[in-house]
Design a protein that fits this description.
The complex is a heterodimer of chains A (491) and B (263).
Chain A: H1 12-18, H2 22-51, H3 63-98, H4 106-128, H5 142-172, H6 185-216, H7 229-233, H8 247-261, H9 268-281, H10 302-329, H11 339-361, H12 373-395, H13 397-401, H14 407-433, H15 444-447, H16 454-490
Helix pairs in contact in A: 2-3, 2-4, 2-16, 3-4, 3-5, 3-12, 4-5, 5-6, 6-8, 6-9, 8-10, 8-11, 8-12, 9-10, 10-11, 11-12, 11-14, 12-14, 14-16
Chain B: H1 4-25, H2 46-68, H3 74-81, H4 98-114, H5 117-140, H6 147-184, H7 187-210, H8 216-240, E1 245-247, E2 258-260
Antiparallel strand pairs in B: 1-2
Classes of the chains: A mainly alpha (491), B mainly alpha (263).
């Protein structure tokens, strides 16, 4: 009953919930993350459908309800979706790349996994029972909002503990003779991004605690006011913090293409420094608009603008490394590139596109900060992170589950996702230039009285959201079939 | 020689310091404020400056630790230990209940903070118990190099505590749950429920005892399902509330003077 070493009599459920095996934990992280991505994509599609008519509420009953789904879309994709999938890869692949026999602190890793899962469940329930992260008109249920905040705190705690386990493995679990500079690109980018996550997530937790404590008081003084909660947490869903999701994807791309082409990047040192710089420029905890003092809005300050522009050449350097690998080893790929290679290249291109759009977004005369360019930027970067993560899961599928899985399905889903992300990104970016607000609400005033052409662009964006959701479903089917095949093989 | 880890983290630290100073100067700081960490003047945007400078401090600490411990290289570890080859950093451990129970404890605390203090206290108790158990498990794994001997050492120490405590708690929870069911049922209904429950328990125990070849897995499954059913019934009954009790002679406070009526 204590340390239940398998005695052969335990059931599959007992095995699953008591396991400290990194592969089992990865399955939980991965499937949980993919499920959250699907939930986020469904919410995104509903919000897109609502935007087809900017003048009134169609699908949702009020602007508050729309806001709950709009914010749930971002929370689900970032905290409940992409980050856990990256943790899934870090839990299994990073120890292998470092030559470690297993993940360090496996019980803590299991604790992190279950804490995240429980927190994710609480967060979703909080959103579903009229809570979420506040609403513009204060129409949500206070207790449900409090439940969402507690769920977010558990999610943050789980992600932090898991990150610490992975970083400890990279540091202390490396095989003899392997220096920190010799580890795989995924491990290196995980080391950098993990360092930055551990710097940012506590700040996010502090924001959530502040909002929770004030929310529970009656009445809320400032931080817990329902129309103020989202703004305190929103920095983690936009530039520059959002780029941190794409950093491990750059590592995945370099590893995947390097492995497929059988060649090493010519300038490894440059790539290591570039990815570290990418991580540094992704540190976004300082960009808290809620704490702006009169006259110094952080999003118009030089540090914010400079970071947005500086990350573009850094991303281009990494793209150069990827293209160099393809140039030198492209002939080894044959007539058709393997699915993970194609998905990795798409992910890197979308990341670069995201950084370029992020730079355009902060150009002051265009006044795009509050427009749907922000949403387009989010979609490009998060879309790149999701596609890149799937490339990683597909590439290392055999290490994770013992069989290569269904690369055809993964590629099909990836192409649908790329199409969807491109459509959403392009349409929302143009809509932003035409004056459409990031959160459109259910009336023209909230939508920013955009140009009439945004109607057609919103239709295109909705088609993109549908394509992205279809991609998520295809990946889910592929993942479930892969897991089922693995279970049958084990049986 | 400076290690790769030091270069990474100290490099990030230096970049963060420069970013903080830049952020200060470009947001209305005085000439000496940002470079003196606010000692000699204003630092501009307090939030961005403090957060970036705090990150720099953390990165500096990690960088210094990395260089002090040579990036935790296996060769450096072996040298410190005075052996030729460093052992595996992590021994493979078996399955464990403590992670999931710990997570459930924290989850209960979080829900309790929002819903009801009793749930919070329950979560806290679970977390404390898990903390003790987890600690003892870790201690026992370092008693010797023999896993079986370690497990025996742990059981010798903890079983005399675990069995009575868990037994008491289990009985208490089940009694509480069953009492909620009986208090929710009508007077006659309670008799029927108690009779059926008794027969089911007695009959089930008889059936199991007649089949000693039944797999342990099946017995555990039956017990698990039974406990969950009782707990769920107890929780639902508690939510539903007790049936009404009416007193004879209104105003009398003597418990003996109460009668129960069906509703």
């Amino acid at each position: 009953m204590t340390t239940t070493d398998s005695d052969g009599s335990s059931t599959a459920v007992e095995e699953a919930i008591t396991s400290t095996d990194p592969v089992t934990l990865s399955k939980v992280w991965g499937m949980g993350g993919m499920t959250a991505v699907l939930v986020g994509l469904v919410a995104g599609l509903l919000v897109s459908l609502e935007r087809l008519d900017l003048e009134s509420a169609g699908i949702f009953g009020s602007g508050d309800e729309l806001f709950q789904f709009w914010s749930a879309h971002r929370v689900a994709l970032v905290l409940l979706g992409v980050l856990p999938i990256l943790v899934a890869l870090g839990t299994t692949i990073v120890p292998k790349q470092c030559g470690a026999n297993t993940l360090l602190f496996p019980r803590a890793a299991a604790f992190a996994c279950w804490t995240w899962l429980i927190g994710a469940g609480m967060t979703v329930v909080g959103f579903l029972v009229d809570g979420g992260l506040g609403t513009p008109d204060g129409g949500g249920q206070r207790q449900a909002t409090a439940l969402t905040l507690m769920g977010i705190l558990l999610v943050i705690g789980g992600l932090m503990v898991a990150t610490m386990c992975i970083l400890s493995t990279i540091l202390s679990g490396r095989a003899a003779g392997m220096g920190l500079g010799d580890i795989g690109y995924l491990s290196w980018t995980t080391l950098v991004s993990g360092t930055i996550w551990l710097g940012m997530l506590p700040v996010l937790a502090a924001n959530a605690v502040l909002a929770y404590v004030d929310l529970r008081g009656r009445p809320a003084v400032r931080f817990g006011a329902e129309d103020a909660i989202w703004e305190q947490l929103s920095w983690v869903f936009t530039h520059p913090a959002i780029y941190l999701l794409a950093l491990p994807v750059l590592g995945i791309a370099l590893d995947v293409i390097s492995s497929a082409t059988g060649s090493e990047p010519a300038n490894r040192g440059v790539l290591l420094v570039s990815t570290a710089a990418f991580g540094f420029l992704s540190f976004g905890a300082y960009a808290q608009t809620f704490f702006d003092t009169p006259g110094t809005p952080i999003m118009e300050e030089a540090i914010y603008v400079l970071a947005a522009f500086a990350i573009v050449p850094v991303a281009l350097v990494v793209l150069g490394g990827v293209l160099d690998l393809l140039r030198r080893g492209g002939s080894d790929l044959g007539s058709s590139a393997p699915a993970p290679v194609a998905l990795s290249v798409i992910a890197v291109l979308l990341t670069v596109a995201g950084t370029v759009l992020g730079a355009l977004r902060v150009v002051a005369p265009w006044d795009l900060l509050e427009t749907s360019v922000t949403g387009a930027h989010f979609t490009l970067v998060v879309g790149a992170a999701i596609i890149g993560s799937v490339a990683g899961l597909s590439h290392w599928g055999e290490d994770l589950l013992g069989s290569p899985g269904f690369p055809g399905l993964m590629l099909l889903g990836g192409l649908a996702a790329a199409l969807g992300v491109a459509l959403i990104g392009a349409a929302d970016a143009v809509s932003g230039f035409l004056g459409q607000a990031d959160f459109t609400g259910v009336d023209l005033a909230t939508a920013g009285y955009p140009d009439s052409a945004t109607g057609a662009l919103n239709t295109v964006s909705t088609l993109g959201a549908a394509a992205f959701l279809i991609a998520g479903l295809i990946w889910m089917v592929g993942g479930v079939r892969h897991l089922a095949a693995d279970s049958e093989g084990a049986g | 020689m400076l290690t790769t880890g030091f270069k990474l983290w100290f490099g990030l630290c230096m970049a963060a310091v420069m970013a903080a100073v830049f952020a200060g100067y470009t947001s209305g700081a005085t000439e000496t404020g940002p470079i003196s960490v606010g000692w000699k003047g204003g630092i501009g945007n307090h939030v961005s400056y403090v957060i970036i400078m705090s990150a720099a401090a953390g990165l500096a600490l990690v960088g210094l630790i990395a260089v002090a411990f040579r990036d935790a290289d296996a060769a450096a570890q072996a040298e410190v230990l005075g052996i030729d080859e460093a052992p595996e950093a992590q021994a493979v451990v078996g399955n464990s209940l403590w992670p999931i129970f710990g997570a459930l404890g924290i989850g209960a605390m979080a829900v309790g903070l929002v819903v009801h203090p009793a749930i919070f206290v329950t979560g806290l108790c679970i977390l404390v118990a898990v903390g003790v158990e987890w600690t003892m498990t870790n201690w026992s794994e370092k008693v010797s190099g023999d896993a079986e001997a370690n497990a025996t050492a742990r059981e010798n120490l903890m079983r005399p505590i675990e069995i009575p405590v868990l037994g008491t708690i289990g009985i208490g929870v089940l009694v509480l749950a069953v009492s909620r069911v009986l208090l929710t049922s009508s007077v006659n209904g309670a008799v029927v429920v108690a009779t059926i429950a008794g027969l089911v328990v007695f009959g089930g125990a008889m059936a199991i005892s007649k089949r000693p070849e039944m797999p342990r897995r099946a017995v555990r499954g039956i017990l698990f399902v039974g406990c969950v059913a009782v707990l769920l019934a107890g929780i639902l009954s508690a939510v539903n509330g007790e049936r009404e009790f009416h007193q004879i002679g209104g105003g009398a406070s003597d418990d003996d003077a109460q009668v129960e009526t069906d509703h």
